[in-house]
Amino acid sequence: MNLMDANAYRQLFEALPMAALLVDDHGACLGANPAAVEILGPACLNPTWNVFDSDILRGDELARLVDSIRSTGSLESYDATVHGSPGGRLMHISGHRVFNQPRQQHVTWLLLGDVADNSAAAYQLARLNRQLEESNRQLDQFASMAAHDLKAPARRVRMFAQLLDNDPTLSESSRGFVHRIHISGRQMEEIVDSLLQFARVDEGLDTVKPSNLRQLLQRVCAQCAHDLEEAGYEIRVEGAFPTVPVDVVAVEQLFQNLVSNAVKFRRRDIPGVLTVTSRAEPDPGGGHVIVFSDNGVGFPERDAEQVFEMLYRAHNKSEFEGNGIGLAICRRVCRSHGWAITAQSPGDYGASFQIVIPKSDLDDYHRR
Questions:
Q1: Are residues 127 and 213 in the same domain?
Q2: What is the pLDDT of residues 339-356, one digit of tens each?
Q3: Domain containing residue 31
């Protein structure tokens, strides 16, 4: 769960005692905190300033930085002389590559700290990380407990509704009310189950393993075969799918939600078709793209971002069943893997969901 908004992250970035730079895979500087400006000079704030083209690192040191960021997707910590201030200074350089959701690209946090101050700074950063991890753990535990505690009363409501429904003296009008209670109880249980799935998305990330995504999709389609046949729905799979390190349970949940979403929001006047295509990005530095495209009812294009929000519904509940959590789970699964997911729809015909897998994930599998 996100505990901090963008403004809080900005404040933390500005307050870091060590120099911090945010750079893209081409070395362009996307941000620099005051400590970095003090060491490197105001030039690093210029939109055209590039780490790779500057002279802050020289010779083998620069080559090492470029190779680490571009090739491995991570930056092994090392000491080097930074030529920003007069005479240069020996600094400890480290970095971490992450996926930036607003920019839809990978970026690297580049940290430069004085070797003498490194121990204190590392301790402070480790302490903040521990606090963040503990807060996340407590919030996830709270969500799981709250959802679990809600299931019990929902089951009791349905149980008593069933007992009332079995009463032969119940009038038809009263029986109708009991039926509505039964349906509402079932819907509440479904919402609670979905909330539990959402809260547990990150639980399997410690047990990721290389898996072929086509095989995972085929397994999901086999599990949904009865529902697909009953709805007269066809799924077409095209292209070569990559093998990448994943949490198998979470990614199967991602695929199942996207398939179920297409079937649920199908049109009734034409046969339903979901086409899943997989392709590598033509850019040498690009990753892999998997697109789920259907010919269903679609959604308003202005809601392309909102469809991933918790409890959001693009259509009236009387028209289509659902609790508005399925796509929120999809986004959380993608984010937990460092992937990106976006949605598109003209509003009255069809919808497509695009998953972008970064090149670093593909490289990580091939290095294993």
A1: no
A2: 999 999 876 688 999 999
A3: 6-131
